[in-house]
Design a protein that fits this description.
The chain is an alpha+beta fold. Helix content is 15%, strand content 35%. The protein contains eight helices and 43 strands. The strands form eleven sheets. Strands 18, 19, 20, 21 and 22 form a five-stranded antiparallel β-sheet that branches.
């Protein structure tokens, strides 16, 4: 070694003591055992001890814009300026965040560029906004996330058939419908617990099925046919079900999800979230995902500002009307639609694209709703031009987009549409201005959907100035109920769309005067209705039989906030949720107003009956069963009698136990009384007897002067 590196003094001293000459020693040839440094610190050791380097992981904030013009070097800046101007309107592009590669041989651009935004949300919005953007006739942008490129590169060159897996039967998710006692289930949330229970009305109590703490972070929701129970979490949503318990069947990743909505046939799940914008002047950013329920795959997503999803409806989270998408076409889940500015966008689930690749243009449309059974949309357009162009309600068939019927309406203040559950009738509540424009009155336009040419009938109340408080169709029936009036106790009127043999004329059945009611709750099977007085009426309930036009019972559930019929129409629940601090819990009633049992729960949030799928029986078979109900009911009457005897026996056993407990308590006190006999004898100066007959009763009279008054009496 020509030059010896500087060494610590202690090493030099040790070398001199051992007669080691560093000049003749090749230090590079010395190899230390792995992991051993013999106290000699490496020059690179400080790099290991320093703070770890912060590496920016992931490319979620980068997009790739393809199909750009191929331009030479002299036009490079112009093209870059156009691209930067376009994409800067959507979000903040990072410094040096726009890069257009150039072909080194030709000096021209390669026809694509990379753009890096500050946030992944801005990048996703840029992709959503500019994919298929038409720069000119020859250049239509194709925009992808940078992370997707890697996924595309991994697609194999040759197709290989998927591996066939042996069939493994899954759980019967409808097994709960086979309950031998024909009971219904419900779910409740109170405190941190979520419970699923049977409604065991025969035994006057609920029967537990499944209970779990912190099962959801906000709410639970049954699917429309009762197959799944959905829970909501910060990372997304999940569905649960099973033959005997509740297992997690699928997860749906959607961070910060706030709302969910199933399609009527349970094939799809829509999730919604709203995110704070990076720029405080911007509105919230909305993300909506449409999942396939069974596979968990995202079939379509929608992203944009809250303003884009806030058109029409009654408003909701961050001003967005929920549900944003409304399902139609019955239980086939074929179509879903949303309202936009001057358009209704109708999508079909075969491709998850717009029907005919374009929205239906309807100027100034403000509301729409689907028929529950058919692919028919009812839409409302308000008056325009100060009344020169009347308001209108239209019926549009999908997918043809043909207008089936239209009704022009004049002097309209507001309009609300109500479909009957079978899709046979549509009621349109129309609030109209009087001639002076200082007040309004209300009437109904009644559409008979199944009749030829869809005839429309006008219904006005006897007192046109009555305020309409509530309206409700009878499920699967031809009757409807209206709460109307301006008094503290309004009237309730019942109407039928049939009059005797004339099925084409509406008629009034009866009017109930001065009722403490502000809400209507029909039984799912029709015939029975609850006239409920919630909020200001403090939970007044009247159980009414519309067939016989008579009140079956009147009751009260103080401070009740919810009234919910079970899917069969046999039982109804009234609940007091945590809106009120006291009396939280629920009452279970029979259809005719008999209180069966009551459950109190602190911090009670939610009560939901488990829905039942439609019956497989034909209407004719159901009618036959109804006519021969006595024959079928003998079996259940016998079971009811057995349960009644069992309850009576249980009551007798309970009374017997109470009596035995009382006698046992009396016996203990008698023994205690006997044990203290000597103490009592001592207190009575030697008298040992406890019998009252051996005591002599004496009456002693005591006179006491209360007051003395002297008065001088004159004899004159």
């Amino acid at each position: 070694m020509a030059e010896v590196m500087s060494l610590p003094e202690e090493i030099r001293a040790t070398a001199a003591r051992l007669n080691v000459d560093f000049a003749s020693l090749d230090l590079d040839s010395i190899k230390l055992p792995p992991g051993e440094d013999f106290g000699i610190i490496s020059d690179d050791e400080d790099l290991k001890e320093g703070e770890p380097l912060e590496v920016e992981e992931g490319f979620e904030n980068i997009i790739v814009v393809d199909n750009l013009p191929l331009v030479p070097k002299e036009k490079f800046e112009k093209l870059e300026g156009v691209i930067r101007k376009l994409y800067s309107q959507i979000g903040v592009i990072k410094e040096d965040g726009l890069w257009m590669p150039v072909d080194p041989e030709t000096g021209k651009t390669l026809g694509y560029c990379f753009i890096a935004y500050n946030t992944p949300q801005e990048a996703e919005l840029a992709k959503e906004k500019t994919h298929l953007y038409k720069l000119d006739r020859a250049h239509i942008f194709s925009v992808n996330m940078f992370e997707d490129i890697d996924k595309f590169m991994k697609v194999p060159e040759e197709w290989a058939p998927p591996e066939a897996k042996p069939y493994a039967p899954g759980e019967n998710l409808q097994k709960w419908l086979m309950d031998e006692k024909a009971r219904d289930q419900f779910v409740i949330r109170s405190g941190s617990d979520t419970e699923v229970l049977w409604n065991d009305a025969r035994h006057l109590k609920p029967d537990p099925v499944y209970k779990r703490a912190y099962w959801t972070e906000s709410f639970v929701q049954w699917s429309p046919l009762g197959t799944y129970l959905a829970t909501v979490h910060r990372q997304g949503a999940a569905i649960w079900g099973g033959a005997t318990t509740f297992n997690r069947l699928m997860r749906y990743a959607h961070p910060q999800v706030k709302s969910i909505d199933f399609s009527p046939g349970e094939k799809y799940l829509i999730t919604y979230s709203s995110h704070e914008p990076s720029n405080p002047r911007d509105t919230h950013r909305v993300v909506i995902n449409l999942f396939d329920v069974r596979t968990g795959k995202v079939m379509r997503d929608f992203k944009g500002s809250a303003d884009e999803f806030a058109v029409g409806g009654t408003g909701g989270v961050s001003g967005v009307s929920w549900p944003v998408f409304r399902w139609g076409g019955g239980k086939d889940d074929k179509y879903f639609a949303r309202i936009g500015k001057n358009v209704i966008s109708v999508y079909e689930t075969q491709t998850f694209g717009l029907i005919d690749k374009k929205s239906v243009k309807v100027d100034n449309v403000v509301d729409f709703c689907w028929s529950p059974t058919d692919p028919i949309i009812a839409l409302f357009v308000p008056e325009l031009g100060g009344g020169n162009q009347p308001a209108r309600v239209s019926l549009m068939e999908i997918p043809s987009k043909n207008e089936l019927r239209q009704k022009n309406l004049f002097s309209v203040s507001d309009c609300k549409m109500y479909w009957q559950s079978n899709g046979e009738y549509l009621a349109v509540k129309v609030d109209r201005y009087t001639k002076t424009k200082k007040s309004t009155y209300t009437g109904f336009e009644l559409f008979r959907i199944k009749e030829r040419d869809i005839p429309i009938e006008v219904l006005e109340l006897e007192n046109k100035n009555d305020k309409i408080i509530a309206f409700a169709w009878e499920p699967k029936g031809h009757r409807f109920a209206v709460i109307h009036g301006d008094n503290p106790r309004p009237d309730v009127s019942f109407y039928s769309m049939r009059t005797g043999s004339n099925t084409m004329k509406v008629s009034k059945l009866t009017t109930l005067k001065a009722k403490q009611a502000n809400a209507l709750y029909w039984s799912p099977s029709g015939r029975f209705i609850i006239l409920a007085g919630l909020k200001g009426f403090n939970g007044q309930l009247e159980f009414y039989n519309v067939d016989d036009l008579e009140t079956m019972a009147q009751a009260e559930h103080f401070m009740a906030t919810d009234v919910v019929w079970d899917p069969t129409g046999r039982y109804v629940v009234t609940a007091v949720t945590s809106v009120h601090e006291m009396e939280n819990g629920f009452n279970v009633w029979s259809f005719n107003g008999k209180l069966l049992y009551r459950i109190l729960k602190d911090h009670f949030f939610q009560f939901l009956w488990r829905p039942r799928p439609p019956s497989f029986l034909t209407p004719e078979k159901e009618e036959e069963i109804s006519k021969n109900l006595k024959k079928y009911s003998k079996k259940y009457e016998a079971e009811d009698q057995d349960v009644s005897l069992l309850l009576s026996e249980q009551d007798r056993e309970k009374r017997k136990m109470l009596k035995e407990e009382w006698e046992r308590w009396i016996g203990e006190w008698r023994r205690y009384h006997e044990d203290e006999k000597l103490i009592r004898q001592k207190l009575r100066d030697g008298e040992a007897s406890d019998e009252e007959e051996e005591y002599e009763a004496k009456e002693v009279e005591i006179e006491e002067v209360v007051d003395v008054t002297q008065e001088v009496v004159s004899f004159d």
